[in-house]
């Protein structure tokens, strides 16, 4: 076979370059899309992310510039392939309307002919795909702000089981706290009161942030302890007697870490900010407060036993003129009365000011009334006098609940929502005793000589959110809701205090909670950063963004491959003819005469030259003539072949 048979056809290299560049562009697009889909989250280094955030205008310009370059390149390769394919197609008969369609596509335009609706739709579709290339690339390449999730797990103190009940009982015995009457919870005074105030204000729409041990809680603690180091609060080291029930503040041990992901080669960014959502143990209470009906004699609520124990009529205005001792008693279901003593300041005649003084005695009964169970709930009996006379003799049933909460750590504050709850069991008797003791301490120590913290809380919050006098415009339902939230806040804080004390640094050897006292916590850390994320299942935005590129690439490859096949066929036919004519010694002249013209359908000059050189006879520009001309067939040929 002569060496000429292996000669590469004209423009073969050009077609190969077009195909390779277009495939590279398509591969880049789908490769980037696949990388995002595989890794789920992609972000540049933290320094680059910071630059992106600091210069959003420059970022938009760079992304748009890259998208424009890729789009223009793809569109140019498409028009070049259409030109070459149409040039080869014109060596065969083709109607003028199809020729004009090809010319429009080669120029990146479209036709609009109602008689040829199919060709019109085709050109409009391809025209739209070309115009959407830039939008598609911009959508694909533009980074967005998103939250990068990282899974966390760890452990915390489990106060729900029998192991903790045993430990708590040992602590009670070690400190002499053998029953509810012991008065040894001074450290809980301020914290319990503030927690109750914050929770009570929520009833009236007052936003409150409760601070304890350096941690900030939204409204109330929900009985949790921080499980995130950045939100754990104080970093002080408690002394030897400053842990467990003697806790007075200090570092709380946090044992939470990152779960390695499936793509460990992808570094987790530091991000712009971080928040957390954790599932962990909590404790709350269902509290129901209501007035004691006159027919409910089982409570035996008695406030009538009081007498003057000190009087000094000659005392100055700033001195105590009189003191009254109150013996408040109630039946706590033990077949004997429970009595608390209070002292209030009065005048020398034993009378108190109804507007300036307030007395709010309470009795806490551990266990439900008239029942044998002692681990499920406790009862609080209370009544207001003088300034607090709006609160009638009332009973509050407090049912503590062991909960699982979803705690959100963000903006330096902890917010919690209960996801599940269970009532106390027999092994929680010591835990209930501790909570009831905290409530008792609060009820007694909140009452001073002239006022009560609990009473002032009810009075001030209600008065600040209603109009008129509290005595003339009283809504009992709202007052009881406020009282219920107060006691719920106290109960939740008591659990937070207990967890904090036993998880404080130094509470356990090496600060490691034993397995039988630990509970699993898990959750997610959300890192705010900028980059690319895998699309949601119901939002195929990225797939739609690659659709124009895919269609244009396919059309480009079809046109380029068609041109290559036609070029090879033409080359083989030319060589065969040259060999035959060489036998008649006409090789040189005929080979020169059969080189096909380099016709460019998108070049207006070439079109005029083709019209001038040909012998095609067309109709005029009337409507009928144009219709006839569109159906006319034409064929490109060299001058010597006509």
Characterise the protein shown here.
The protein is α+β, with helices and mostly antiparallel strands. Helix content is 40%, strand content 22%. It is built from 14 helices and 18 strands. Strands 1, 3, 6, 7, 12, 13, 15, 16 and 17 form a 9-stranded antiparallel beta sheet that branches. It has a 3-stranded antiparallel beta sheet with strand order 8-9-10, with no helix packed on it. It has a two-stranded antiparallel sheet with strand order 2-18. Helix 3 (56-89) packs antiparallel against helix 4 (96-106) and helix 5 crosses helix 11 (541-582). The radius of gyration is 44 Å and the shape is elongated. Mean pLDDT is 81; it is low at 1-6, 178-184 and 587-595.
List the helices and strands and how they pair.
Layout: H1 12-39, E1 41-42, H2 46-54, H3 56-89, E2 94-95, H4 96-106, H5 117-141, E3 144-157, H6 162-175, H7 189-202, E4 209-212, E5 215-218, E6 255-258, E7 273-291, E8 302-311, E9 322-331, E10 337-346, E11 358-359, E12 362-366, E13 378-382, E14 385-386, E15 394-410, E16 413-423, H8 429-445, H9 453-464, H10 476-503, E17 518-533, H11 541-582, H12 587-593, H13 604-613, H14 623-631, E18 633-634
Antiparallel strand pairs: 1-17, 2-18, 3-6, 3-17, 4-5, 7-15, 7-17, 8-9, 9-10, 11-14, 12-13, 13-15, 15-16
